[in-house]
Structure formats: C-alpha cells, structure tokens
Amino acid sequence: MALRVFCNSCSCEPRKPTPRFCLTSCGHVFCEVCLQKGEKDKCLICKTACQTLVLSKQINPDLQALFMGVDVLCNKYSKEITQISEFQEKHRKHLLIHYKQKAAKLEESLKKATQQIQQIQCMKPPEKTPQLPFSSTSRNPFSIPSRKQNGYSSYPLHSSHPSASETVEAMEIDPVPSPMRKV
Questions:
Q1: In terms of DSSP H, where are the helices of the chain?
Q2: Sheet of strand 52-54: strand arrangement
Q3: Domain RING-type spans what residues (predicted)?
C-alpha cells in the first residue's frame, strides 16, 4: 500500500483535478495552493530556507521510494540485497581459498625448515664442554706467588682488591661463543 500524500499545511489529499504537490528539501509536503500562500523558498511549517520539487512519476527513484508502500519497498530491496549478499559471499570465498593456499605453502615451508634443522643437528657431533687447564685444586697459572716465597714483604699491596686467583675462580665461562664476539 502506497503512502497517502497530503498537504502538511491544509491536510488536503490529491483529487481530480489534482493540485500539484511539492516536496521541500526539509522534508515537508505542500499542495500548490498552500505553497503559493507562503514566502518563496521558505518552509511553511519549520520556517527554514528550502527548495521545492514537484512530485511526479519522473522524480528520482530514491525520492519516489519515500511514497511507496513498505511491502513494495521490502520486495524491491530484498531482491537487491540478495544479489549483493551473493556477490559479496562469492568474493569472500575466493579470498578464503587464497589465504588457505597461502597458509598451506607457509606450513610446508615451515615443515621443510624444521626437517633441515633436525638433519643438521643429527650430523653435528655433540659439543663437549671445554675443560679449563686448571681447577681450584691444581696450581693456578694466573696466581701470584706468595710474597714470602719470592722474598717480598708480607704486607699486601692492594688489600681491597681480590687476588688474580680469586678473580679467575669466581669467573663463569660460557662454552658457547657470543654472536657479537669474533672467534
């Protein structure tokens, strides 16, 4: 059922002979008689500046839709929405297939890289932890001989600093070379 058109000023409806009706840019509808009573380019209801358009079958389809019944509009737009929805779904499926193929290629590359790493690890002999040439029980080549042995005074030279042997024993040695260090 189409929307009944009536003048927003005098509430008259179209009849034969029908006065022309106009739609304002502010959304009001007036018959030609009332429109001529008001000020030019000014709405009779909201008093704002506006433009008018004569209602006819030749007006823009979007404006014609304002006067169509909701059931007619639902059928019309339902068909359009269905077409748009099917179009968009088809493109989503194509995109999904593309990403699935891309993911499969990446998974295959990851699998190959993992296999290569495992093969390299199997071929490489296990690394042994390097043994230091001295231990805490053996004589430390970096230790300073006792002051009594070499005839020097028994007074400590630097009592606040640890001896070289204490420093070497306290150091931890990393068997794996640092990537920053040149070997």
A1: 32-37, 61-64, 70-123, 164-170
A2: 29-31, 21-24, 52-54
A3: 7-47
pLDDT per position as a tens digit, 44-76: 888 899 888 888 888 888 888 888 888 888 888
pLDDT in tens, 38-48: 888 888 888 89
The alpha carbons of the chain give a radius of gyration, in whole angstroms, of: 47
Specify the amino acid at residue 91.
Answer: H
For tokens 């093969």, the residue is: 119
Structure tokens at 3: 């929307």
User: Looking up tokens 């805490």, which residue turns up?
Assistant: 136
Handedness of CA 42, 46, 50, 54 (dihedral sign): negative
Q: Does residue 133 have a cis peptide bond before it, meaning omega lies within 30 degrees of 0?
A: no
| Buried b / exposed e along 104-127 (16+ C-beta atoms within 10 A) | eeeeeeeeeeeeeeeeeeeeeeee
Contact 144, 152 (CB under 8 A): no
Torsion of CA 63, 66, 68, 74, to 10 degrees: 100
Q: Cα 70 vs. chain centroid, distance in angstroms?
A: 38
